[in-house]
Amino acid sequence: MNNGPLDVVGIGNAIVDVLSHADDEFLMREGLVKGSMALIDTSRAETLYQSVGPAIEVSGGSAANTIAGLAGFGGKAGFVGRVRDDQLGAVFTHDLRALGVAFDVAPAEDGPPTGRCLILVTPDAQRTLNTYLGAGADLGPDDVDASMVARAQITYLEGYLWDPPAAKEAFRKASEVAHTAGRKIAFSLSDSFCVDRWREEFVHLAEHEIDVLFANEDEIMSLYQVGTFDEALQHVRGHCEIAALTRSEKGSVVISGDEVHVIDAELANAVVDTTGAGDLYAAGFLFGLSRGLDLYTCGKLGSIAASEVISHMGARPETSLAELARETLGDTA
Q1: Is residue 128 part of a domain?
Q2: pLDDT band at residue 252 under the 50/70/90 scheme
Q3: Alpha-carbon distance 108 to 114, whole Å?
């Protein structure tokens, strides 16, 4: 176990992604809302899996994707999540540790299997997620290593954690430990449907507990129930120390007090699958922030990582993000 300092520790659902192509007709036939994330049970997961075409399986999970991306930049990272001692759990654990990520939560010996997310990618590169949390739903405060959180400059949490009650308590423990140690808490709203479920509590978090907030355009507008992005900007400006807001092909806007930075999107070679774009944007941003870079450069690193991940299937980078950053930013990165 590495007991040295960490740039970022992520806490989230440990999930293996099952990616498959589908058309709009399939989504309609299965009653799926395009572009959304739905929580499903074991039976629904098995039924959908049998219905889709050929698929590839790769370790995923929102916060875990971010941590994998951060490691790809050369950052020192840790992850807290729960898997079962099964085949998918072994795959997930191997994938993270192979990147140099500290992942020390012991796998569960009984209970539900390792979580998986069936991701259906339509021809327009939009992804519709159907998530079975499995063992990840049992993540609780006892799984949070307080010393790891205290050693990390930033602890990153995903909004999806707010669904299982025990995971919410894990979140609160991590937040308390981090702030007591003088560290920062970063949080992703995760999904506009997730915001709909927990809006009041998320607004409270943004005002009182979160230092760095990540959201896309739809999520931040949903959070404050406003009709325009500019209105949402004005609401969030006074709530968090930093808000990093992504707008797909329009790039991103980073706001901190009176600072406002508009960052162009990086052009991708091709848009194949948008799964993980927000996760990898957060990876680049947090890497830059943990290294003391200015907010514009942090956003630029986020754009570089997001551009890489949408150019292929899957939510984990396939090219060295550290090299891409050097090519784009030179010695700054």
Answers
A1: no
A2: very high
A3: 9
